[in-house]
Specification:
Keywords: Signal. Pfam families: DsrE (PF02635). By secondary structure, this protein is α/β, with parallel strands linked by helices. The protein is built from 6 helices and 5 strands, in the order H-E-H-E-H-H-E-H-E-H-E. The chain has a single domain, classed as 3-Layer(aba) Sandwich (Hypothetical Protein Ychn, Chain: A), CATH 3.40.1260.10.
Length: 180
């Protein structure tokens, strides 16, 4: 009986100490994606006076094809975290450069359906990112290497010569690099 009660009390204590749930998540700039928690007493926060120029090298993709991509959703999470930390959304310049298998997250519904058997669950997230001011860029080399035409991708995507040239150019312009 003692062996059962100890784990039970441990679980109950964790519920009392950490009562956060998915319902407590906030979505200050990207609604319904990249939910975060407000840490009001955090010692280290973003500086609301800075202009945040961030380029994200996104080449990874999750294996689950029926839900919004985990790595693409991390972009929304990063933006939400900066805003809840006090950064004005107008001071947040985000460029997401997709390459490798991540280019599949950009397929329109018809092309995604042909490849994976369902509509693209990333379209709504791409729309929300675009509405929030994030620039979505795809590596032209990755598109050609995967035989994907421009007409097959989300229309707000910009095509770069390559991920390598887009990221290095933005870094030389002062953008901080994150890799997902």
């Amino acid at each position: 009986m003692k062996k059962i009660l100890i784990p039970l009390f441990t679980v109950l204590a964790l519920i009392v100490v950490f009562p956060l749930s998915a319902q407590d998540r906030e979505y200050p700039v990207i609604k319904d994606f990249g939910g975060i928690y407000d840490i009001k007493d955090a010692d280290v926060k973003p500086d609301p006076e800075l202009m945040y120029n961030i380029v994200i090298d996104l080449g990874s993709t999750s294996n689950e094809k029926k839900y919004a991509d985990y790595y693409l959703e991390r972009v929304a999470r990063m933006m939400n975290l900066h805003v809840i930390g006090g950064v004005n959304p107008s001071n947040l310049n985000v460029v997401v450069v997709l390459h490798a298998n991540a280019v599949n997250t950009l397929l329109n519904h018809q092309s995604y359906n042909q490849k994976f058997g369902s509509n693209n669950p990333n379209i709504e997230l791409l729309e929300r990112l675009h509405e929030a001011g994030a620039e979505i860029v795809v590596c032209g080399q990755s598109l050609i290497g995967r035989n994907i035409r421009e007409s097959e991708i989300y229309p707000e995507v910009k095509i770069a010569t390559s991920m390598l040239t887009a990221v290095t150019t933005l870094q030389l312009k002062g953008y901080a690099l994150l890799q997902f």
